[in-house]
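Input (structure):
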């Protein structure tokens, strides 16, 4: 029986020659190639992974039980471009990428700074500046600079409207400024007639274009709304502007006025005195324009004379219901009338014993409304009979009535006239 011959010992790897490399002998199944099998690709190509089993009599010089990357091509045989780059470096291409990225970031920063300067340079006046300019325009007596919505079709915003009869607010101080980037509320304090007043002004802003600045404008304006009279005997002037009268319709005529001290004037008429008043306008509730009416000197005596002359003219008529006007209203033209009680009478006679006391009330249109404060007295005397044929027997009769008058006094042609109602 023969004894088996033991296998020869493994030959150690040859590391002396220029082409020497690791011993890759072993089972074919132990050799795998490509990435993902324990070896990482290098700049020069693929690496092969060798799984070295542990067995008796075979002691490889490599760590056992681990995958170890082994280059297929020795480092000294690889081309220069295939040499593995140092850890953390990415070559010239990475350097260029970093340079481009840095330049881009710097350009964006420069553009952002430039845009900020452009926006700031193109921005209009701020909220405080807008309020300050509003009061500067009033101090200059130039309402055309107000640029307020209520100025449209407003006589107080005409170029010369504040040139006379107007005192602008004094000692203007801009106070607190609160709100957001688009809506602000600015406090402003000023002096009028020795008194200090504080107004609150609302403002809003809009942006001009994508990179444009913000424009601020008022949404509430200092001042007050004036309610104008329905009628006036003569044009009313506020400062240097003539105020309109009420237009037909149920709504009262109104007008916005900026803050200030105004002189209100109305010229005299035949029946009324002239009016001159001081009007203080600040922010607050509407102000009703009421110049008032005062009778001109001697008008009361003139009206009393007109009424008495009318009564005397009526009393001179021999009629139970005297009249002076041949119109449909003629029966109202005399303040006395008596009901006939008998079929046959002679012509009556009127005697005025006392004239009525009058109350005069100037109306808004300039006329004077006349009413009776206390009645007068008149006596009527006549004769009556029941005889149809002559000779008739007559009976004397008298009666007393009160005299009351109502009506108006106007002066259409500059001369007072009595118009009984």
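Output (sequence):
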């Amino acid at each position: 029986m023969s004894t088996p011959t033991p296998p020869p010992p493994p030959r150690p790897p040859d590391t002396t020659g220029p082409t020497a490399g690791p011993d890759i002998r072993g089972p074919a199944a132990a050799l795998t190639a490509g990435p993902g099998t324990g070896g990482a690709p290098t700049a020069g190509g693929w690496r092969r992974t060798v799984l070295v089993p542990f067995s008796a009599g075979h002691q490889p010089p490599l760590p056992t039980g681990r995958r170890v990357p082994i280059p297929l091509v020795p480092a000294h045989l690889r081309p220069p471009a295939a040499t593995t780059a140092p850890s953390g470096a990415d070559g010239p291409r990475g350097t260029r990428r970093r340079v481009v990225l840095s330049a881009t970031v710097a350009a964006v920063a420069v553009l952002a700074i430039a845009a900020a300067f452009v926006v700031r340079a193109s921005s209009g006046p701020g909220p405080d500046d807008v309020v300050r300019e509003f009061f500067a325009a009033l101090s200059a007596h130039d309402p055309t600079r107000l640029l307020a919505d209520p100025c449209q079709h407003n006589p107080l915003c005409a170029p010369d409207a504040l040139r006379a009869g107007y005192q602008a607010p004094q000692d203007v101080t801009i106070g607190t400024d609160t709100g957001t980037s688009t809506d602000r509320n600015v406090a402003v304090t000023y002096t009028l007639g020795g008194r200090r007043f504080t107004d609150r002004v609302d403002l809003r802003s809009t942006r001009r274009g994508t990179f444009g600045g913000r424009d601020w404008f008022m949404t509430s304006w200092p001042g007050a709304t004036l309610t104008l009279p329905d009628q006036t005997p003569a044009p009313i002037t506020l400062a240097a502007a003539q105020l309109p009268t009420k237009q037909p319709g149920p709504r009262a005529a109104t007008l916005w006025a900026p803050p200030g001290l105004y002189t209100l004037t109305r010229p005299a008429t035949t029946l009324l005195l002239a009016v001159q008043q001081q009007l203080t306008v600040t922010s607050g509730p509407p102000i009703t324009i009421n110049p008032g009416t005062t009778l001109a000197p001697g008008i009361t005596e003139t009206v009393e004379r007109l009424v008495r002359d009318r009564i005397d003219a009526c009393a001179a008529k021999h009629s139970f219901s005297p009249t002076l006007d041949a119109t449909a209203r003629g029966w109202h033209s005399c303040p006395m009338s008596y009901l006939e009680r008998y079929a046959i009478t002679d012509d009556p006679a009127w005697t005025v014993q006392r004239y009525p006391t009058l109350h005069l009330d100037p109306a808004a249109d300039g006329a004077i409304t006349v009413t009776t404060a206390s009645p007068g007295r008149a006596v009527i005397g006549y004769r009556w009979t029941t005889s149809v044929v002559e000779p008739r027997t007559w009976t004397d009769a008298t009666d007393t009535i009160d005299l009351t008058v109502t009506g108006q006094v106007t002066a259409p042609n500059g001369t007072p006239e009595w118009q009984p109602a």
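Notes: The two ends are 169 Å apart (CA to CA). The chain is about 15% helix and 30% strand.
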